[in-house]
Design a protein that fits this description.
Chain A: Keywords: Antibiotic resistance, Membrane, Transmembrane, Transmembrane helix. By secondary structure, chain A is mainly α. In chain A, 76% of the residues lie in helices and 0% in strands. The chains are: A mainly alpha, B alpha/beta.
């Protein structure tokens, strides 16, 4: 089990394309979007500056990329190639494969978060009031990524072959944009904001924003994320069992 | 078990002997009726004995459950019946070939055996336990025809993973060596040829001291020489007292390494015996010749011991379970056959004859 997790992590770190999209891409995007903005004006209807807003948005986006893309496509591919079947002929417990996938995605998530923070602090001079806020931010974004890891597993067992990439992309971009990771939802029409308020990505980014303002995350956002976690993990477990019966 | 031997020596009827039966065991032929009178002679109705065969070197196993037991197992996919009332017992130390064309139910049978699928009805047991329990205990090593490999890792890393997951693991180096992949240990898994991939799969199946090794079409994609090397690796595993079950449609392969061949057809056991017995069953020899004048069909078809005949103009090809008698009778017809050739049939031909006969009988129903 430990060997499988280690091997999954080694693979993830070796995959240059994957590492580029999870670690470099969010930071690059942060520089593109927040790079030209001034550091004092606030994002409309919030108390956050542009760099602060986008730092959390891009860190969340980076972890979303790592866990969603990392899990869904790999699981679908390995289901198809028969590797999952071959693993079922070992003494590895049935859940071991999924646990190893989530663990390795979580390891790739951490650098994605930290690199965005470092770039934001170095280039855009982002400062927080207290040191605990950095740690809390990292912890919250890292823990929150579990919700999307479960979603990635569910997609991996739902779709197969050619369908998995487009499906993942639609969900990935849909959640990123509608949830306000790329641009503040306050600029959206009201009806879209109403939808956005209930998306997991919106609640996910809101965790970080609350911490940046020096407070605790809102109960509503936490409840929403826990609800989505239960939903996605339940779907993943159900699809996994269905797939196992089908072999 | 001296008691059983004594009973044998006293001439107990074969049907009552259930404890010891030396190999090769009597041929069982569930589909015998389908195959014509010609080879009723070679078939017996004795049931295979659940005792263990000699030479396994694992005395403690002789008193316990058979390695593999299928009891009245059924599996359908929609309206397709993949496995039909299958009864199957494997004993310690046997090397068994599961032979059949595509769609005969080989892969389904192995999936059921390994617990990848659950039967609609019936019971599958490995060493008396469920397949999953046997796998978790490290008693089964298996490679699948469709068994993909983890990509972006080296051969050695993958084999190390298999060893770590096996409760009775061998050292990584030994596994690499026995599978003949030491030289490609540092190669990336996704950069291997088809034959090399098969050997890596074999390494995964033999990562530990499993009592049963299951291989689904193990030499697919190999050339002749690597197939020979691979067979040597399989034989080495068998010599260590392991029970080996492999599915194949390479009939040469069954002939070469198996000491027991089970022919599957439409999810049923069509024949079960040594490869020599299977060959004997289907009409051992092929006779071909030319005639000076158009053949007297009725006369030729009435020849004794024929199991098949094909007449095209003056060329005649026939199969016979007793070529000497057939040829003798042929001269008795008063014809003059030219260029007469009598040749033994390979297992492949034997096998085609069996499955054709079964298909024809089903169609005739």
């Amino acid at each position: 089990m430990i060997t499988l997790i280690k091997l999954e992590i080694t693979r993830a770190l070796r995959n240059k394309k994957f590492m580029f999209f999870t670690v470099i891409y969010p930071s690059a995007l942060f520089l593109v979007i927040a790079g030209t903005s001034d550091t004092t004006s606030l994002v409309p209807h919030t108390h956050l500056t542009m760099p602060l807003y986008y730092m959390v948005a891009m860190a969340s986006f980076g972890s979303l990329t790592a866990v969603l893309m990392g899990n869904s496509e790999r699981i679908a591919k390995e289901r198809e190639s028969g590797w999952v079947r071959q693993l079922r002929l070992t003494a590895l417990p049935g859940r071991g494969y999924v646990v190893a996938k989530i663990a390795s995605a979580a390891v790739a998530t951490l650098p994605a978060i930290v690199v965005v923070f470092v770039v934001a602090a170095a280039v855009k001079d982002v400062r927080l009031d207290a040191a605990w806020q950095w740690l809390a931010l990292t912890g919250a974004i890292w823990a929150g990524s579990l919700v999307f890891a479960a979603l990635g597993v569910a997609i991996g067992y739902l779709a197969s072959g050619d369908a998995v990439r487009p499906l993942t992309m639609i969900i990935y971009f849909g959640l990123s944009i509608l949830g306000g990771l790329w641009s503040p939802t306050t600029s959206y029409p009201q009806w879209l904001q109403n939808i956005s308020d209930y998306l997991p990505t919106h609640a996910y980014a809101a965790l970080g924003q609350a911490i940046e303002l020096g407070g605790a995350p809102h109960t509503k956002d936490i409840a929403l994320l826990v609800g989505y976690l239960v939903l996605f993990a339940g779907a993943a477990a159900w699809l996994y069992r269905k797939d196992t019966r089908k072999a | 078990m001296p008691g059983a031997v004594v009973r044998l020596a006293q001439g107990c009827p074969a049907g009552t002997v259930t404890s010891v039966m030396p190999r090769p065991r009597p041929l069982t032929l569930p589909g015998r009726a389908a195959l014509g009178e010609a080879w009723a002679m070679t078939a017996t109705t004795a049931q295979s004995a659940p005792g263990t065969s000699a030479g396994s070197g694992r005395a403690e196993a002789s008193a316990s459950a058979p390695v593999v037991a299928f009891e009245k197992v059924n599996k359908s996919y929609g309206s397709m019946r993949a496995v039909a009332d299958l009864d199957l017992t494997l004993h310690q130390g046997e090397t068994v070939a599961l032979l059949g064309p595509n769609g005969a139910g080989k892969s389904s049978t192995l999936d059921l055996l390994l617990g990848l699928r659950t039967p609609d009805s019936g019971l599958v047991r490995i060493f008396g336990t469920t397949p999953r329990q046997a796998i978790e205990g490290g008693r089964v090593g298996a490679m699948l025809q469709s068994g993909g490999l983890m990509e972006e890792v080296t051969v050695q890393e993958l084999v190390r993973l298999a060893c770590d997951l096996h409760p009775l693991a061998h050292p990584v180096r030994q596994v690499l060596e026995e599978a003949g992949i030491t030289d490609i240990a540092d190669r990336k898994v996704n950069k291997l040829s088809g034959g090399q991939e098969q050997r890596v799969r074999f390494a995964l199946a033999t990562a530990g001291a499993s009592d049963l090794i299951v291989l689904d079409e193990p030499t697919t994609g190999m050339d002749v020489s690597s197939r020979q090397t691979f067979w040597a690796a399989m034989r080495a595993q068998a010599r260590q007292g392991r029970t080996i079950l492999f599915a194949t449609h390479y009939l040469e392969e069954a002939d070469e390494i198996a000491d027991r061949v089970i022919v599957l057809h439409r999810g049923r056991v069509l024949a079960d015996g040594t490869s020599a017995e299977i060959k004997a069953m289907a009409g051992a020899r092929r006779i071909s010749f030319e005639l000076d004048e158009p053949a007297d069909e009725a006369g030729l078809r009435a020849l004794p011991h024929l199991t098949g005949i094909e007449i095209s103009g003056r060329t005649v090809r026939m199969r016979s379970s007793d070529a000497d008698a057939t040829v003798h009778a042929l001269y008795g017809l008063g014809v003059y056959p030219r260029g007469i050739e009598v040749a033994g049939l390979g297992l492949e031909q034997a096998f085609l004859t069996i499955t054709d006969a079964a298909t024809a009988e089903e169609a005739g129903r």
